[in-house]
Amino acid sequence: MGFLVLAFFGISLLVVPSPLVVADPDDQACLSNLRQSLQDPTGKLAHWTKENLAAPCRGVISDLEGVTCNNDRIYKLSLVGFSLRGSLSPFLSNCSNLQTLDLSYNQISGPIPAELQSLVNLAVLNLSANSLTGPIPPQLALCTYLNIIDLHRNQLTGPIPQQLGYLVRLSAFDVSDNHLSGPIPPLLANRSGNLPRFNSSSFAGNKDLYGYPLPPMRSKSLSVIAIVGIGLGSGLLSLVISFTAVCVWLRVTEQGMAAEEGKVGQLMPDY
Ligand SMILES: *[C@@H]1O[C@H](CO)[C@@H](O)[C@H](O)[C@H]1NC(C)=O
Ligand SMILES: *[C@@H]1O[C@H](CO)[C@@H](O)[C@H](O)[C@H]1NC(C)=O
Ligand SMILES: *[C@@H]1O[C@H](CO)[C@@H](O)[C@H](O)[C@H]1NC(C)=O
């Protein structure tokens, strides 16, 4: 009996992992789902194995490439220039202690998940130089600690959400070289003074984006003038042509009538 109890104790000591390894289930879900949504053709995520993903924060420096932990929670995810493809998992929102999300310089496509809104500690969001499509989620404005939003060089469409202007801590904002359209939110462009909050380099390279601090669209206003000119010109031309046609027609019928009158005059007997 005593032997059995001892054996059981021994086995459970072997099976139960060291109490120092505290794996947060949200961090586990976050990273395993991200691993599944990404493709890693160059093997930069070699240590993102099932075993390591089960305990992402084994030490201060995680076994997982690009992951940094603090108090057994992931606080930084930096996979810069890893040649990653695939898409951004909405489960990224489960990494609820995340302060830095830097996935710049990859070939990640698809949308920016609106679920990122629940990353309430997020200070740095750098998704620049990828192939992201779709809109900039207005929900990002709920991440009130955001210092940096860098989304430059993607294929994002739609407007810049006005709400992002309310992020008071924002010190860097770059959405240049996308396919964004519409007006630049005044809260992102104008300070109380005359200097812009973010200058034209933050917004350049978006064909249909307009407003201060971008220079006025000269080519577009020129073409508007050209279109108005062509319209007015062709209108005038058609007026002149129809007027001339009416005149000619009148002249012809007048002559015809005069000739008729002449004939009638000749046929009429004189009294
Ligand atoms: C975002 O990442 C790119 C590439 O790693 C870097 O060059 C850029 O400076 C970062 N943006 C900000 C605002 O720090
Ligand atoms: C922003 O600043 C520009 C240039 O100083 C000015 O023309 C424009 O009216 C301002 N817009 C707002 C909304 O204050
Ligand atoms: C915009 O501001 C940045 C610094 O915030 C500066 O490096 C850059 O030269 C400025 N660009 C323009 C076009 O003024």
TrEMBL record:
InterPro entries: Leu-rich_rpt, LRR_dom_sf, LRR_N_plant-typ. Its main location: membrane. Pfam families: LRR_1, LRR_8, LRRNT_2. Residues 1-23 form the signal peptide. It is a single-pass type I membrane protein. PROSITE patterns: LRR. This is Leucine-rich repeat-containing N-terminal plant-type domain-containing protein. One of its GO terms (cellular component) is plasma membrane. The chain crosses the membrane at residues 224-250. The keyword Transmembrane helix applies. It is found in: Cell membrane.
